[in-house]
């Protein structure tokens, strides 16, 4: 049970690739693997802790103000995480700029607390949130690996492919370091996932209206 | 006989979640707890963050100084001294540079001056009354003066260090340390290649400040422009015009030349 909760969000219920949540930050921080890893860790910690805290007090959160109470807790954890990064990983926080603070608006966090932690005990909630954090991290790391390898020829900053300028054969693909490439890679990932797991394809909510044949005079 | 009433905390928790008292109470409790957690973290970590911030700027300064020929050997003896300059008066001020926060001064109406639009070449709106200045001196003679300059670029404020040689007119280095211009175009203002285009250029000729930015720069008063980022380039040159002028470090540099910068 607990294992499924952890493994499901990795592929079958992946928050980014299947539910298309949290892609703003997924696009922004994936130019290098080190920023993607930091962001992944920050989000996983925040989502796990907020799920635990919210689940622990869920019986006493009044229904009318539940969203703002959840957001207050999430935002506080995000600020604490951001401050910690600024204190102990200054250069990394400079490279992540605003995106750590934006975890507060990340739909994955609010989605898990609202959909799961509000109705389940703390331990399962934290496992579920941790699994979703890992799912987000997996997508980020894959996208970042592709972008950094093809864009700069490095992985975690270590030169893997030697660029032509330094005597190798590799021509860095500058497009990979720009935002559109993240859209393209993420789109291909979603497509590949849907092709491999046809049951993920959703039924159409409504059919397109057939266009009527125009009467020709 | 009424049974013993439970304590107020239990009574509060036992209220139904639809009860307004409980809603307000829970909201206040959550807000207070979260506020406390955030404040404690911010206060406890502030000294470490401040250290990081200063170290980052010092690193940038060192990197810039190392690139200036003839300075590296001066650094071990004496090194870089930090001063606070009263800009209007053009003299070294009594303010202690250690805890002088220039950004705070620029935002404080009591410690800054509103600029008339005609004089505001850098488009910064207000100018702080005092500014930090770094100097490398040999005896009493400055051999390198580093001025912090800032101004509006295309879509952000460009902040840079302008280093002048001992004649206070030749650019020794120009390093942008903070900007948020268009990535790939204006952001190249922070590239070493753009800074290299400034080295050895002169700020003023006999008739006044003459430095300009242009593609295919020639002669001692022209800096090579960034292709595709004209507005960023104009912003950079305009801010140098402003900060070298009478509203900026002009009076101070004049006093420094005359040897009357210290009171």
TrEMBL record, chain A:
The chain crosses the membrane at residues 41-61, 67-85, 97-118, 138-161, 173-193. It holds the Pfam family Rnf-Nqr. It comes from the Bacteria. Keywords: Cell inner membrane, Cell membrane, Ion transport, Membrane, NAD, Nitrogen fixation, Sodium, Sodium transport, Translocase, Transmembrane, Transmembrane helix, Transport, Ubiquinone. It is a multi-pass membrane protein. GO terms for biological process: sodium ion transport. Its main location: membrane. One of its GO terms (cellular component) is plasma membrane. Signal peptide: none annotated. It is found in: Endomembrane system. InterPro entries: NqrD, NqrDE/RnfAE. GO terms for molecular function: oxidoreductase activity, acting on NAD(P)H, quinone or similar compound as acceptor. This is NADH:ubiquinone reductase (Na(+)-transporting) subunit D. It comes from Paenirhodobacter populi.
TrEMBL record, chain B:
PANTHER family: NA(+)-TRANSLOCATING NADH-QUINONE REDUCTASE SUBUNIT C. This is Na(+)-translocating NADH-quinone reductase subunit C. GO terms for cellular component: membrane. Keywords: Cell inner membrane, Cell membrane, Flavoprotein, FMN, Ion transport, Membrane, NAD, Phosphoprotein, Sodium, Sodium transport, Translocase, Transmembrane, Transmembrane helix, Transport, Ubiquinone. Its EC number is 7.2.1.1. The chain crosses the membrane at residues 21-45. It comes from the Bacteria. Coiled coil: none annotated. Composed of six subunits; NqrA, NqrB, NqrC, NqrD, NqrE and NqrF. It is an enzyme of class 7 (translocase).
């Amino acid at each position: 049970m607990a294992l499924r909760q952890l493994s499901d969000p990795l592929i079958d219920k992946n928050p980014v690739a299947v539910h298309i949540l949290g892609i703003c930050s997924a696009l922004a921080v994936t130019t290098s693997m080190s920023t993607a890893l930091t962001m992944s860790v920050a989000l996983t910690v925040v989502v796990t802790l907020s799920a635990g805290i919210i689940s622990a007090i869920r019986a006493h959160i009044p229904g009318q103000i539940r969203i703002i109470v959840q957001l207050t807790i999430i935002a506080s954890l995000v600020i604490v995480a951001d401050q910690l990064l600024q204190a102990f990983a200054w250069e990394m926080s400079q490279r992540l700029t605003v995106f750590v603070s934006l975890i507060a608006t990340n739909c994955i966090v609010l989605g898990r607390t609202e959909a799961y932690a509000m109705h389940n005990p703390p331990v399962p909630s934290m496992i579920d949130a941790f699994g979703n954090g890992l799912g987000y991290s997996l997508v980020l790391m894959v996208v970042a690996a592709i972008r950094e390898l093809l864009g700069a020829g490095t992985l975690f900053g270590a030169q893997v492919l030697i660029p032509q300028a330094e005597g190798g054969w590799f021509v860095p693909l500058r497009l990979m370091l720009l935002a559109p490439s993240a859209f393209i890679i993420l789109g291909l990932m979603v497509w590949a996932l849907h092709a491999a797991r046809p049951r993920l394809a959703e039924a159409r909510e409504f059919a397109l209206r057939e266009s009527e044949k125009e009467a020709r005079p | 006989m009424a049974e013993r009433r439970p304590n107020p905390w239990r009574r509060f928790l036992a209220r139904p979640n639809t009860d307004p008292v409980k809603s307000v109470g829970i909201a206040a409790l959550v807000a207070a707890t979260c506020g406390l957690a955030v404040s404690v973290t911010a206060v406890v970590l502030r000294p470490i963050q401040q250290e990081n911030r200063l170290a980052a700027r010092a690193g940038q300064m060192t990197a810039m100084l190392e690139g200036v020929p003839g300075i590296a050997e001066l650094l071990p003896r004496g090194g870089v001294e930090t001063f606070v300059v009263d800009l209007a008066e053009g003299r070294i001020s009594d303010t202690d540079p250690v805890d002088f926060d220039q950004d705070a001064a620029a935002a404080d109406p009591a410690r800054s001056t509103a600029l008339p639009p005609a004089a505001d070449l850098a488009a910064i709106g207000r100018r702080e009354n005092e500014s930090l200045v770094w100097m490398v001196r040999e005896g009493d003679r400055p051999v390198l003066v580093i001025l912090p300059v800032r101004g509006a670029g295309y879509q952000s404020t460009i902040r840079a260090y302008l280093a002048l040689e001992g004649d206070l007119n030749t650019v020794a280095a120009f390093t942008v340390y903070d900007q948020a211009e268009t990535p790939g175009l204006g952001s190249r203002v922070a590239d070493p290649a753009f800074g290299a285009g400034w080295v050895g250029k002169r700020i003023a000729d006999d008739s006044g400040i003459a430095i300009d930015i242009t593609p295919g720069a020639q002669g001692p008063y022209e800096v090579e422009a960034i292709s595709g980022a004209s507005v960023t380039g104009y912003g950079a040159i305009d801010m140098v015009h402003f900060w070298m002028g009478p509203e900026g470090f002009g009076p101070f540099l004049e006093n420094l030349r005359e040897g009357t910068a210290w009171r």
